[in-house]
Specification:
By secondary structure, the chain is an alpha+beta fold. It has two domains: 194 residues, Alpha-Beta Plaits (2-Layer Sandwich); 93 residues, no CATH class. Helices cover 33% and strands 19% of the residues. It is built from eleven helices and eleven strands. The strands form three sheets. A six-stranded antiparallel beta sheet has the order 2-5-1-6-7-8, with helices on one face. A three-stranded mixed beta sheet has the order 9-11-10, with helices on one face. Strands 3-4 form a two-stranded antiparallel ribbon. Strand 3 and strand 4 form a beta hairpin.
C-alpha cells in the first residue's frame, strides 16, 4: 500500500521562510529512518504559492490565476510518498515526523488493481501504458525546473467515482506524450479524503483526526459513509474496531458502530465491544448538520441524517 503524506502550508512556508539547521537535521534523520525501513519512495518541499499558478478548466477553455493564494490552511508545502503494510503503519510514520507545529494529511494512493477490468479494454490500451509508465525510471533533463501539478478534488472524486474508459485512455495518451518528451516525471491519484486522516502537531503532542471523528473535514458524514461502503470488501472490521476503542473517542465509537451495522459490514457480535463502551450521552450523527432528528438509543446517536438516506447514497 502506498500513501502520500501531504504537509499543509503555514504562514512561514507561504512567506518563504526556510527551516533552520535544527529542523533540517531532524528531518534528515527522519528521512534516513524511512529509507532504512524501505518505506520512503519520494519526498519533496514546495515553494510558496506566490511562485505558483492555478489553471481552471471549463467548457473547453482555461483560465490562469497567478499566486499567492489566500487559503493558507489548504495549501501544500511538501510531501512524502511512502509504502506501508497498513493504514496503521502509515499513521505511525506520520506521527514520527519531527514537527513542533503544523498539520499533515495522509491519503492512500490508487493502484491499478483498484480499477475494474473493462471487457472492452484493448490489449495495448491505457492499462498497459500505465504499467509501462510506472515501470520506467523517470529521467530529469539537465537545466530544468521541477513543478508539481495538484489536481483539485471534486464531488465525483470525493465520492470515489472512477474515471470512465474514455477519460482513462485520453489521460494515458497525455502521460505518454509527457513522458516521452521528458516533461512528466510521475503522476498518481489519491483515494477519497474519507479514507484518509490528518495529524496535527503541537510540541510533542500528536492529534489524529479522521473522518469518523471530524466528518466536517470530509464533506460530512454522508461522504464518510460512501467511503466506508466503497471499501467494504477490504475493511478489516476487527482492526477498525480495535482502532476506535484504542482512540477512545465516544463519537467515533458511536458512528463506526452505527455505520457498520447499517451496511452489515462484519458479524453482528463483532459490534458488541463498541456498544459496551457507550455512555448515556448522545452525539449527533453528522456534526456538519443541525442537531435535529430522532434519537437512536442503541448507539446513543441523534440521527440528523436518516438511515434511509444513507442506504440510498450507496446505491447512487
Amino acid at each position: 500500500m502506498r500513501f502520500m503524506i501531504i504537509v499543509k502550508a503555514t504562514k512561514d512556508s507561504e512567506a518563504g521562510v526556510l527551516p533552520d539547521e535544527k529542523i533540517l537535521s531532524e528531518m534528515g534523520r527522519y528521512n534516513e529512518q524511512l529509507a532504512k525501513a524501505g518505506a520512503l519512495l519520494a519526498g519533496e518541499g514546495l515553494q510558496a504559492s506566490a511562485k505558483g499558478v492555478r489553471v481552471r478548466y471549463a467548457s473547453g477553455k482555461f483560465e490562469v490565476t497567478d499566486g499567492p493564494f489566500a487559503e493558507t490552511k489548504e495549501l501544500v508545502a511538501g510531501f512524502w510518498l511512502i509504502q506501508a503494510k497498513s493504514r496503521e503503519e502509515a499513521l505511525a510514520w506520520a506521527k514520527r515526523i519531527p514537527f513542533q507545529e503544523g498539520e499533515v494529511e495522509v491519503r492512500q494512493l490508487f493502484e491499478l488493481t483498484d480499477f475494474p477490468v473493462d471487457p472492452a479494454e484493448k490489449p495495448d490500451g491505457w492499462r498497459e501504458k500505465e504499467e509501462q509508465f510506472r515501470a520506467a525510471e523517470p529521467v530529469r533533463k539537465p537545466g530544468t525546473i521541477r513543478f508539481m501539478g495538484i489536481l483539485k478534488a471534486d464531488k465525483d472524486t470525493e465520492a470515489g467515482v472512477l474515471p470512465d474508459e474514455k477519460f482513462l485512455t485520453a489521460m494515458g495518451a497525455f502521460f505518454e506524450e509527457g513522458s516521452k518528451s521528458g516533461v512528466i516525471l510521475s503522476g498518481e491519484g489519491l483515494q477519497p479524503s474519507s479514507q484518509g486522516f490528518r495529524v496535527r502537531y503541537s510540541g510533542a503532542k500528536r492529534t489524529v483526526i479522521d473522518g469518523l471523528r471530524h466528518p466536517e473535514y470530509c464533506g460530512g458524514l454522508t461522504e464518510v459513509a460512501k467511503g466506508l461502503w466503497m471499501q467494504r470488501e477490504k475493511v478489516h472490521v476487527p482492526r477498525l474496531i480495535e482502532y476506535a476503542l484504542r482512540l477512545g473517542v465516544g463519537a467515533v465509537i458511536r458512528r463506526l458502530g452505527f455505520l457498520l451495522e447499517l451496511y452489515e459490514i462484519g458479524a453482528a457480535d463483532a459490534f458488541e465491544p463498541l456498544r459496551r463502551r457507550l455512555t448515556s450521552t448522545y452525539v449527533t450523527l453528522d456534526p456538519v448538520l443541525p442537531p435535529e432528528g430522532k434519537y437512536l438509543r442503541r448507539w446513543r446517536l441523534r440521527l440528523n441524517v436518516p438511515p434511509d438516506e444513507l442506504r440510498a447514497v450507496v446505491r447512487t
